[in-house]
Amino acid sequence: MTKPGTSGLIFNEPELWEKSREGRCGISVPRSDVPRAAFDPALTNDAPELPQLSELDVVRHFTRLSQWNFCIDSGMYPLGSCTMKYNPKTNEVQAARTGFAAAHPLAGDLFSQGALKLMYKLEQMLGEITGFPAVTLQPAAGAHGELTGMLIIHAWHAKQGKQRSKILVPDTAHGTNPASATLCGYQSVNIKSGPDGILEPDTVAEAMDEDTAGIMITNPNTLGLFEENIKEICDIVHAKGGLVYGDGANMNAVMGIIKPGELGIDVLHLNLHKTFSTPHGGGGPGSGPVAVVEDLIPFLPVPKVQKENDTYSFITDCPDTIGRMHTFYGHFGVMVKAFAYILSMGGDGLKRASQLAVLNANYIKESLKTTLDLPYDRPCMHECVFTDKTVQEHHISTMDMAKRLLDYGFHPPTVYFPLVVDAAFMVEPTETESKDDIDQFIEAVKAIVKEAASNPEKLKSAPHLPKVTRLDEVTAARKPCLKG
Amino acid sequence: MTKPGTSGLIFNEPELWEKSREGRCGISVPRSDVPRAAFDPALTNDAPELPQLSELDVVRHFTRLSQWNFCIDSGMYPLGSCTMKYNPKTNEVQAARTGFAAAHPLAGDLFSQGALKLMYKLEQMLGEITGFPAVTLQPAAGAHGELTGMLIIHAWHAKQGKQRSKILVPDTAHGTNPASATLCGYQSVNIKSGPDGILEPDTVAEAMDEDTAGIMITNPNTLGLFEENIKEICDIVHAKGGLVYGDGANMNAVMGIIKPGELGIDVLHLNLHKTFSTPHGGGGPGSGPVAVVEDLIPFLPVPKVQKENDTYSFITDCPDTIGRMHTFYGHFGVMVKAFAYILSMGGDGLKRASQLAVLNANYIKESLKTTLDLPYDRPCMHECVFTDKTVQEHHISTMDMAKRLLDYGFHPPTVYFPLVVDAAFMVEPTETESKDDIDQFIEAVKAIVKEAASNPEKLKSAPHLPKVTRLDEVTAARKPCLKG
Amino acid sequence: MRYLPHTRQDIDQMLAVTGHADLNQLFETIPDSAKTKTALTLPEALSEWDLNTEMEELASKNAACGSYTCLMGAGSYDHHIPAIVPYLISRSEFMTAYTPYQPEVSQGTLQGIYEFQTMITALLDMDIATASHYDGGTALAECALIALNKSKKANKIAVSSLIHPAHRQIMKTYLNPSEYEMVEIPADENGLTDVAAFNAMDDIAGVAVQSPNFFGNIEDLGSFRAGADEKKCLLIASFTEALAHGVLKSPGRFGADLVAGEGQSLGMTKSFGGPGLGLLAGTKKLMRNLPGRFVGKTTDSNGQRGYVLTLATREQHIRREKASSNICSNNGLNAMTAAIYMASAGKNGIREIAQLNHDKAVYLKNKLVNAGFKSVFSGPFFNEFVVKAPSGFADKRRELAQKHNLYAGIPLESYYPDMTNHYLFCATETVSRHAMDLLAKEVQ
Amino acid sequence: MRYLPHTRQDIDQMLAVTGHADLNQLFETIPDSAKTKTALTLPEALSEWDLNTEMEELASKNAACGSYTCLMGAGSYDHHIPAIVPYLISRSEFMTAYTPYQPEVSQGTLQGIYEFQTMITALLDMDIATASHYDGGTALAECALIALNKSKKANKIAVSSLIHPAHRQIMKTYLNPSEYEMVEIPADENGLTDVAAFNAMDDIAGVAVQSPNFFGNIEDLGSFRAGADEKKCLLIASFTEALAHGVLKSPGRFGADLVAGEGQSLGMTKSFGGPGLGLLAGTKKLMRNLPGRFVGKTTDSNGQRGYVLTLATREQHIRREKASSNICSNNGLNAMTAAIYMASAGKNGIREIAQLNHDKAVYLKNKLVNAGFKSVFSGPFFNEFVVKAPSGFADKRRELAQKHNLYAGIPLESYYPDMTNHYLFCATETVSRHAMDLLAKEVQ
Ligand SMILES: Cc1ncc(COP(=O)(O)O)c(C=O)c1O
Ligand SMILES: Cc1ncc(COP(=O)(O)O)c(C=O)c1O
Question: According to the 3-state scheme, what is the secondary structure of A15-63?
Fold first, then answer.
């Protein structure tokens, strides 16, 4: 087998200001057709010290920089919890249409019917996929959705007349879950998952009380396991007057299979930049819509999209709303892409995507479980989590394997998360990777595990092919240098 | 100095059919809304054996391939005779406008006024730049322009009543010149340039006779030198009833400085994909407009664009025309880009581009002339030509230096052309390269010449950083494998 | 489906390895009772071509179709975007990469964001800037929380009533579950935040002032700095129009402790309001209180320069419930967009474009006033200003949009109920004199 | 000017090195008498923004503005282009590279073109294909020259009169300076090339037949193969619609010696007729006679697979006046475009799309005939066909374009003067039944 990773010619490139020369300008300054209106000098500064470059300088700079990046389009990106599936190019075409890209958010409903209709329909479709009657598209990312959802839970308790102080958060939860809860003033109570990697109703029942606002639950969880007791757990929480928050970032495993809204979950956020194929952009922007059950609809953020006859409008007159979460309506440009994706896939296509995502993950799990330690040996959903136990004897860690995978031409899995597993190595292939590429990945991991015994130094000093080797993160944090 | 070249992670990628799997399809097959109309099976084949891939397979395949290429956007490309200047991105935006990209060539004049007007105006502007009264945009590339021009000369002689059999071609000419002449049935007579690297009137006078159709002259020539005797030479040729063909591929040196039409040249082609910034595309498409003097206008190819009042139309009714050179009107998409470039630069901008192109070339010539052998030590135009004489003692050739430059992160100059210089090393920086990048290039050449003495093996085995090392071109030609 | 590479044979072979009879059986751990009984009721899958038709139909129902004259701002601005910006940003290597957690293969994103941080500090004259936030409003809300959380005693944040109304609403939403209180500083008759009213307030952890403010007027941040010093509270400067800093005295020069703003003007389309770019900067002292990611410079094991995400101990994935914020994904690609834009414009370009915005806005205001609109405030503004329109303008405005594709201002009444017939106008470098003259003629 | 990086200081420093006083002095070797006396009289430089306005104004004056229904073919076809094609092809690494003369840093272009060559041979069932030519017409002219140059005695090329008229004109232009003669084979009453007429010809070096021919009819290449065998001349098959080969029996199966055609349908826009893609294929025997570039597979000094331009000894830069052709730059990027398109469509996709073209064309023809048009030929066609329109259709046709943005056929009279009121219609996969029904209703 030839591994995808190899080395080639790329280019060094200094920081922008090292290239700057007084008098260069890379932008076309518009011609002025009006008189100059000078400012009172007291109001002004010197021009900001931005670098001065020609257009080619800028193009070459960022082209070179880009070539130092790994991306989905260049290779498999099996980052657990991140759903790095193919980002269809047609989605970009759709979002770039002048009618969307150049739309002003305050042009007024009359002149925004296309955008409003798209948002309305997308809300409906996400409601159908998740099994909820209403959705807000306003949250700008998953964590923002969590905050929105938790604010709704907070507002609901307030409306019930008695606020609560705690929230249950399983140990497998993503870090954003407790952080979002904190922003709502809730104290997180850590809930241990059971020996099977999933939550046990008894544990929840023990922790749940009437000063607890509810539970935040990720299903499938970050171990890639389905929370089988979800209905029972919801019942327990509801019985004590709590609400269930669902982190739906892992929805890619279960579209068309389960609907969280049918399982007792009250509020759920989705990550359009995962499940719905919008690009991650090296950090964002994302979009984190939130779906709610009937009783929570009054608390949704404003403005909301409303349809009357065939006309769409924004409404803000909602007395119980938590208020506004975004300056305008959220990441509309991201919504367009997700909308285009859902229309392209259809219901059957989405279900098939989930089936194949789960197939890919189980295939990897089965193929590697004798090579790597698999702490929870059970059928998984969209991802599977290994540890570095089998290579520890060679003093090789998950980090070493991850870095070595780069030399083989694969992006490493998510490492050291979830925290419940020591030195986790969390693989989420997604459905858009073919068996052939997955087989190459499996071979690479096997080869690396062999190298762990035969040539551990090679792993410890990995990666060898990228432009830079391992970076000194300790000094970076101790003596932060955050600007040039 | 840090050199730009370094190595990084890139990816192996098999040939398309090695990735093919029965049943995959990367295109969205349109929904049918009409009945199937089956063919008589006798008329049909099995489906052609194209590879079967998913959309991501295709995207990843070509993304990986692209990363194996050097390009202007990634580094300096000082290829002599090729004018690898920056290709502005806005030109691409213009050519992609629906009104241009989706225009059908046979929609009729009434529905093609925008395209016709653009072509008309571009002809006018190129006429102004070159000093000729008429231009055809039909030729698809430089060599195609040469053929067009030579056909015009051929037709003119025929019209004079006596065809001639020979054509003078200087030894510095591009290979396309004699090849184009041959296509017109002319026998090329090789003319030696003088000791200064330029043509001497006497040599031309000696060769020119009344069976010679004319001369093909490149000015500035491929040594980067201005043919100072151009007017005298034109007079000599004209006196014997010949015509002067000008290869204007090097027009980038002299825009706004000279106008070939004022010097006695009768026919001239331009390369829009050089002087006028349209991208070379890894081989084409180009565009090679041809400009002519008044007397030759009747011979221009049809269809021609005509303006009457404010309406544009195609005309074909030209009895002396050489005929048609392209199925439609030439490379319209390329014309749009060149048109956008000229509008962006304006007359002063074009002149400035030429001045700076010449400045850059002279700066390199002066900076390297003590490092490399400079056979013609005189002020140059847009390019300068060195040889490998100073490194021959180390058994290092131009080819070795060229390949080693790749490791330094520069595309090599044109090598072993023009033929009049042994082992030419022909550098054309163009005006869009900054002094800083040029200084880096100069440093790189100096470092390589030092290496030639200190570490010749390193040069002979270069390049070391690209994905592949030197390729076996001999076997490739002896046992051609032209398909997979 | 062209996105799904699995052939029948692939599936069979893979199921054989996983030991399942078919795809449905893969979900064996999900109790039957949990499975949904109904197939997804969604529109049938569209081909790429039908999708194009459907999407263009929707897109064409927005005002933005074709080229229109945009005299609206209020947090979303119509600026020229050089062709190289979308071109470069759409390179797969930027667009389809994840957050740069593996720095060895993310140096492109990392150096770019580091450069972004640096240029933002240059633009604002601040010590440090984060790697981006969702938008100006959420960035401002985070700043309010920083001020309040840092304060030992004070539990109020003073907020100018001339901060963008939506930003104030977001702050309110964010503060709602807390014990903190948000108090508004009224506007004075010059359309500026009443500094005297602020000076009279007690128990203030921070004061937030937007300049240019929602009315477009340039605030005297210096007086708020003085007032904040008096109270020993933090000064938070905010903005919605990043380009204003191309010419106006920067918040850093006024001594702001925190700056939050919207960066959409730096190379991003309006895109019906998002994604934009939340900008967040602060003094060095506040470094560990700032939310979200930072890129820092360091070296690799060979001593080569390189960049990493750093100071992660403030962040949710390390600190969980004790994190400085819950933010995870930010608006990274938009930060990269802004970096490309700022590098293109450069020191002189941004100054020139900023000045041109002002020139156009002054021209427009004069034209409108000559045409019978009333100037409402007389102080200096950047590219937005408020006028009172003659009655009947609401209808005229709709007509202008429908007939001339010209969008004339934003009515202020819904934000400030006493401002009937008041409109907030904006003119940027994209607006031609011709269009402004046309407007003036039409409303005469 | 943003494309020119030179600062004042750069220029001064560089002039100091070159020893010139100013930029003008750089041109000292040009005699003053040769220098032009007048500055370039060109429009003043436009900013990027004014350029956008000016170009959109021109673009909007073409029929293509917005989405229109294109029932025209005749060498330029309206097909769907997947979003990935322009996306990938516009990557700088493909777009801004030169001809791959330095193979070590051009493997992307080289492997891509090698794959292109391979897929073209698969599409046409030929032994080899070149790395592209300018367009179908120039490729065909080159084929004629090959046949004529190879032939020891015969000096005529027989050309079907149903080859695209423009292609025939190009051949004529190319052959004009030579001693060679081009003779046309007439059409029979079925709209097919008259094979009997060809069989009766003498002194023929090659015969060129287009299928589907200019009328859209599918020729019986087999009978021309037989005739050519008889004469020991070369059979040149040509085409203007590459997609036809997705379903029709390939020229290779008919035993063509040379194939020339237009590849625009393989992922390229119509672009007012160019740049398209000249396709040129031949038998192995003719390898060294073919014009232009080839990419070949080889190995590097480490034995790794790699690709190079090869067989350059046929080419002008080595052989100069003795080269097989003068071609240098070809249409490489369009060849890459076709490679991406063909890889996306694949075996099944291209078959399905080709069939769909036929389905639509048959539907359209039936509709038109029912609406009163006369079917002119009754044999099989691919996606184009000829009908005779009722009188008055010329006006109706203009009206359809102006009112319904529907372009109904191409009048044939200018090509074949006796074909008054005859129109060549084309229907591809992009045309909806709805549009065809509308047309039928309008012309009823
Ligand atoms: C399970 C889970 N929840 C929440 C989030 C937070 O989403 P975002 O990064 O969009 O804020 C993530 C993303 O990493 C996640 O994986
Ligand atoms: C001087 C000169 N003439 C003619 C040509 C031929 O131009 P093209 O490659 O466009 O056919 C070239 C290109 O290499 C050239 O440099």
Answer: CHHHHCCCCCCCCCCCCCCCCCCCCCHHHECCCCCCCCCCHHHHHHHHH
User: What ranges in B187-255 are assigned the alpha helix state H?
Assistant: 201-207, 230-239
Inter-chain CB proximity B11 and A21 less than 8 Å: no
Nearest-angstrom CA–CA distance, B306 and B315: 7
Q: What is the ipTM of this complex?
A: 0.98
Residue D67 has pLDDT above 80, yes or no: no
Nearest residue in A to B410, CA atom: A11
Is the pTM higher than 0.90? The answer reads yes
Place of tokens 């030195």: A423
Q: What is the mean pLDDT of residues D237-262?
A: 98
Residue C56: name the closest of A90, D425, B381 by CA.
A90
Give dist(CA B475, CA C213) in Å, integer.
72
The predicted structure's pLDDT at residue B1 = 56
- For A:9-28, CB contacts with D below 8 A are 9, 21-28
A102 touches chain D (CB under 8 A): no
Ligand nearest to the CA of C99: 1
**pLDDT of res. A1:** 57
Chosen from B327, B339, B404 to mutate, greatest number of chain D CBs within 10 A: B327
Q: What is the mean pLDDT of chain D?
A: 96
> Cα separations (Å) of B89 from A55, D92, D268, D349?
10, 10, 19, 32
Quote the tokens at residue D326.
């003068």
% of chain C exceeding 90 in pLDDT: 94
**Bridge partners of D258?**
D236, D282
User: Whole-angstrom Cα distance, residue B142 to residue B247?
Assistant: 8
Confidence of residue D315 (pLDDT cuts 50, 70, 90): confident
Residue indicated by tokens 């295109």: B27
Query: What is the per-residue burial (b if ≥16 Cβ within 10 Å, else e) of C221-254?
Result: bebbbebbeebebbbbbbbbbbbbbbbbbbbbbb
* B348-374 mean pLDDT: 98
For residue D63, what pLDDT is reported? 84
Region C168-178: what's the mean pLDDT? 97
Q: What is the pLDDT of residue A249?
A: 96
The pLDDT of residue C379: 97
Model pLDDT, residue D313: 85
Q: Give me chain B's average pLDDT, please.
A: 97
Between strands D406-407 and D69-70, the pairing is parallel
Token pair belonging to C233: 């509270």
Give the number of whichever ligand sits closest to the CA of residue B216: 2
* Cα–Cα dist C257/A60, whole Å: 36
pLDDT at D348: 97
Interface test with B, best of C1, C2, C13, C340 (most B CBs within 10 A): C2
Q: What is the mean pLDDT of residues D122-135?
A: 98
Measured distance CA(B127)–CA(B138) in Å, rounded = 14
User: Are residues C333 and A285 in contact, defined by beta-carbon separation less than 8 angstroms?
Assistant: yes
